Hints:
Layout: E1 3-13, E2 16-27, E3 30-35, H1 42-49, E4 57-62, E5 65-66, E6 77-80, H2 92-103, H3 108-117, H4 133-145, E7 151-155, H5 163-178, E8 182-187, H6 190-193, E9 199-204, E10 207-212
Parallel strand pairs: 3-8, 3-9, 6-7, 7-8
Antiparallel strand pairs: 1-2, 1-4, 4-5, 9-10
Bound molecules: adenosine-5'-triphosphate.
InterPro entries: AAA+_ATPase (IPR003593), ABC_transporter-like_ATP-bd (IPR003439), ABC_transporter-like_CS (IPR017871), P-loop_NTPase (IPR027417)
Protein name: ATP-binding cassette protein
Keywords: ATP-binding, Nucleotide-binding
Amino acid sequence: MTKIRISSLNKQMKKKSLLHDINYEFSGGKIYGLYGRNGSGKTMLLRAIAGLIMPSSGEISIDEKILHKDISFPSNISVIIENTSLLHQYDAYTNLKILSKIRKIATDGDITLAIKKVGLDPDSKMKVGKFSLGMKQRLSVAQAIFEKPDILLLDEPTNAIDEEGVLQVYQILKEEKERGALIILTSHHKQDLEALADEYIKMDNGGIVLDSK
Ligand SMILES: Nc1ncnc2c1ncn2[C@@H]1O[C@H](COP(=O)(O)OP(=O)(O)OP(=O)(O)O)[C@@H](O)[C@H]1O
């Protein structure tokens, strides 16, 4: 099972401390709920784990490999942070098909199944540019899971999705966890995470302030 270990992680930008002395261990087969108010550092922590920002001090290791030292990026990771990379000129199926050609992990069946799971139609020719915000977010979830990643980092993955869709996404994430994926998702509200999270992590001022395992 995948393991992520964060040790004494600090990130400063323009003399401001954005992440402060973070120590935590994450394991596969679990869902971690990261919550806290606006600007508390949730997205920044996900960015650091995804290898998108360089720590000022401390380190992050993934399966004993240190980020930016042993590896540049975690392998087999899916990340949904803010604007995801959907291609607006193509339909849902084509979006995933193009990505599948890069890593050659997923089959056409995996693509169709992932699109169906999020409640979209894999046969629809509607361009993603015409999708509502919620439909785009649903497709982002399909994009995140269709290659069966070991690590899923999701920044507020359901904030634009309707009630029925949110339940579908919860179900998908439970299945991903059962498969052994390590899932970290953020929300402003702890209650949003109660249906899903095995562990809650509260952030404030760039640090972890409460750890209720
Ligand atoms: N590129 C940057 N340079 C400097 N400071 C930044 C940069 N990006 C974000 N910040 C600051 O880092 C802090 C943490 O931001 P972050 O986006 O991680 O918060 P968050 O907990 O995800 O908030 P929200 O709930 O609003 O999404 C904020 O104070 C923000 O202003």
